[in-house]
Write a structure and sequence with these properties.
The complex is a heterodimer of chains A (305) and B (328). Chain A is an alpha/beta fold. Helices cover 33% and strands 27% of the residues of chain A. Chain A contains twelve helices and 13 strands. Chain A has helices at 2-10, 62-69, 90-93, 112-122, 128-136, 151-163, 181-195, 209-212, 233-239, 250-254, 278-284, 292-300; strands at residues 22-32, 37-47, 51-55, 76-81, 97-101, 169-173, 201-205, 218-223, 226-232, 240-245, 260-263, 269-274, 285-288. The longest helix of chain A is centred in the middle third of the chain and has 15 residues, at 181-195. The radius of gyration of chain A is 21 Å and the shape is globular. Chain B is 78% helix and 0% strand. In chain B, helix 8 crosses helix 9 and helix 8 (184-216) packs across helix 14 (302-324). The chains are: A alpha/beta (305), B mainly alpha (328). The A-B interface holds A 67, 70, 72-74, 90-95, 98-102, 104-110, 114, 117-119, 121-124, 158 and B 4, 7-8, 10-12, 14-15, 18-19, 114, 117-129, 324, 326.
């Protein structure tokens, strides 16, 4: 019931941006496997210069959506990435798109200098000097093989290669899974400091929402193959409010149709409101902007039930 | 643009070489090295034996080795040249056996191993078409690996000659007149080199068959690729046993099962009756099968061209699987 509210909102068309501004446009994206639909009429748009989190529980269709964007799988529906159709123009598209699909997809036999030589040989937008500068900050040496590296070092190498490619779209699929906290922090730090700018777009899937919360500019929540919420972080702050309500005000809060409620300490309750009048909410208790993870949990309630 | 495409393809080939250096190069070097090692062991054994027997004098030997080499070899130059030819051929045969095993397993893993370890996701993140990727693996298997093998054979032969020369010199025999002036073994080597394109076209059905299963299956490409033809062969034989219409057993094994699995063995196109086909290279029966006319004859066999067409179709299917098989 609460999710119905989200779907209704999600179907509301976003403010139409200029067409040149759009990096990814998907309409009616559907992917059927034998019994299930990994994508079910998914619709979304991603604009230039944004860092977009594609967030959903396991099996919601995140990876299928990314594979469709990267032209790794065939899907039904309308899909355009940088003006190209990934199903037909994959090799051309990959000049402008980079991706890191979870950790440790670099071939284990390759040496650092071989990986760099190869990418320099086949990728027209790769800047070798830049890559070597990034590598100089790490402990990797050029003759080292991937199989001799820790997971964290493999990601450092992969990131150095990818950041040296002047691509317009970077797709990250669970890029920090299994890394320790130092490498994870460093990973996103490097992306923000040395890579991201207004001409680039980053699309990230992860279920470690807390980790990316502070760097995202846009959110796409995916559930059962559908995009159930598409918003910028700014819009989200304006639209959703979380209020910590004392026991005496609980009934008054419920009367305002919160989309979620959960218990807090001392008999207080936390209510999540969508589009309620801020002044009215301020009377109920302490109001603040919900975290992405709390919004996520509220949206996805019942997924595994 | 064309130059870029060409250089990209060269990088793809280089990548295959980097990944498969052990099989393509070092396995060959080791095989050839073992032959040379055995030669050296034989020389040492001979010397030790001679020292023991001849320690008290040369009477029992009848003739000492230096004389044997000097007189005997000079008198039987035809036999010397033939044995040098055979040495080159021995290197070629050993190298071909190694090449078969290396290429067979390379092809089975070529489109499977990177799906298993997920590194396909890295390769697919680069602006390379699946067609060029698969074709680079075909070229690595039937051009690059055999050329490396042929070069190693030549190097091995030269090393063996150097070892022999040192042995001759130790006995005060000048090796140049005996070993180095004969162009014949190098002519044998040129034949090995000329066989590379013949082997390459002949290998296509096996290359296609192995790459097809490598790209298509979720696991265990070896079982699929090997068990299916063998079970089919046995079934065909059994149907024949029952007296039902079947494909002639001999034909089935050699033209279907054999071409699917064993055509990557160098020289399997050689006709068993090569000597009757006409020999333009050497009159010796041992070498008729690798004569240039025998190679030319291979291209007149319908089996060569039917196999090539089937092989190319299977490679095209492998490219399709490489493109669209989305689970890794």
């Amino acid at each position: 019931m609460m999710n119905d509210a989200f779907e209704a909102v999600a179907e509301r068309p976003a403010a139409a941006p200029g067409a040149a501004d759009i990096v990814i446009r998907a309409r009616g994206l559907t992917k059927r496997y034998k019994a299930t639909r990994a994508l079910d009429n998914a619709e979304f748009e991603v604009r230039t210069g944004r860092i977009v989190g594609l967030i959903g529980p396991n099996g919601a269709g995140k990876t299928t959506a990314l594979k469709a964007i990267l032209g790794l799988t065939d899907v039904e529906g309308e899909l355009s990435v940088l003006g190209m159709d990934p199903r037909r123009e994959r090799p051309q598209l990959m000049r402008e798109v980079c991706f890191i699909a979870d950790v440790a997809t670099l071939p284990r036999w390759i040496r650092v200098h071989e990986a760099i030589d190869f990418v320099a040989g086949v990728h027209p937008r790769f800047d070798r000097a830049k890559c070597e500068r990034f590598l100089a900050r790490t402990k990797l040496h050029t003759n080292q093989r991937v199989r001799e590296m820790s997971k964290g070092m493999i990601v450092q190498l992969h990131l150095a290669i990818v950041m040296a490619i002047d691509a317009r779209l970077l797709v990250l699929d669970e890029p920090t899974l299994g890394l320790d906290i130092l490498y994870r922090k460093q990973f996103y730090q490097s992306l923000l400091e040395d890579y991201f700018d207004e001409n680039k777009t980053i699309l990230i899937t992860t279920h470690q929402v807390e980790e990316v919360e502070n760097i995202l500019t846009d959110l796409l929540f995916i559930r059962d193959g559908k995009i159930v919420l598409g918003t910028t972080m700014d819009e989200m702050g304006a639209r959703f409010t979380e209020v910590l309500v004392g026991p005496d005000q609980v009934e008054a809060a419920r009367a305002l149709h919160p989309i979620d409620e959960r218990g807090a300490v001392f008999g207080k309750m936390i209510f999540l409101f969508d589009g309620a009048d801020p002044e009215r909410l301020a009377q109920l208790g302490e109001a603040h902007r919900p975290s992405v993870s709390d919004l996520f949990v509220a949206t996805m309630k019942g997924t595994y039930a | 643009m064309n130059a870029i495409t060409q250089s990209r393809f060269a990088w793809l080939l280089k990548r295959e070489y980097w990944e498969e250096r052990r099989g393509f190069l070092w396995a060959q070097v080791i095989a050839v090295g073992v032959i040379i090692g055995i030669t050296i062991l034989g020389i040492i054994a001979g010397e030790v034996f001679r020292a023991r027997v001849g320690g008290s004098g040369n009477i029992n030997m009848g003739m000492n080795l230096s004389e044997l080499l000097r007189n005997g070899m000079a008198h039987n130059m035809v036999d010397v040249v033939k044995s040098l030819d055979m040495t080159m051929l021995l290197f070629g045969v050993v190298s071909a056996v190694v090449l078969f095993f290396v290429v067979f397993f390379y092809l089975l893993g070529a489109l499977y191993d990177d799906r298993r370890d997920r590194s396909i996701l890295f390769w697919k993140s680069l602006p390379l078409s699946d067609t060029s990727t698969v074709v680079s693996k075909v070229v690595a298997a039937i051009v690059i690996a055999p050329l490396i093998a042929v070069v190693v054979v030549l190097a091995g032969y030269i090393c063996a000659q150097i070892v022999m020369s040192l042995w001759f010199l130790a006995h005060g025999v000048n090796p140049f007149g005996l070993l180095w002036v004969h162009a014949d073994p190098f002519s044998v080597w040129l034949h090995l080199l000329a066989m590379v394109p013949v082997n390459a076209v002949w290998a296509l059905p096996t290359v296609g068959w192995l790459l097809f299963w490598s790209a298509a299956v979720r696991s265990k490409p070896f079982l699929w690729a090997v068990v299916i033809p063998i079970v089919a062969g046995v079934l065909n034989f059994w149907i024949g046993l029952l007296g039902l219409p079947n494909i002639p057993t001999q034909f089935f094994w050699s033209n279907l099962v054999g071409r699917a699995l064993l055509s990557v063995i160098p020289g399997t196109w050689m006709a068993p009756d090569a000597q009757r086909i006409g020999v333009h290279f050497m009159d010796s029966g041992d070498f008729a099968r690798i004569s240039y006319s025998s190679m030319a004859h291979a291209f007149t066999l319908p089996g060569m061209w039917i196999g090539a067409v089937v092989g190319i179709a299977l490679i095209a299917a492998a490219i399709w699987f490489r493109r669209w098989r989305d689970e890794v």
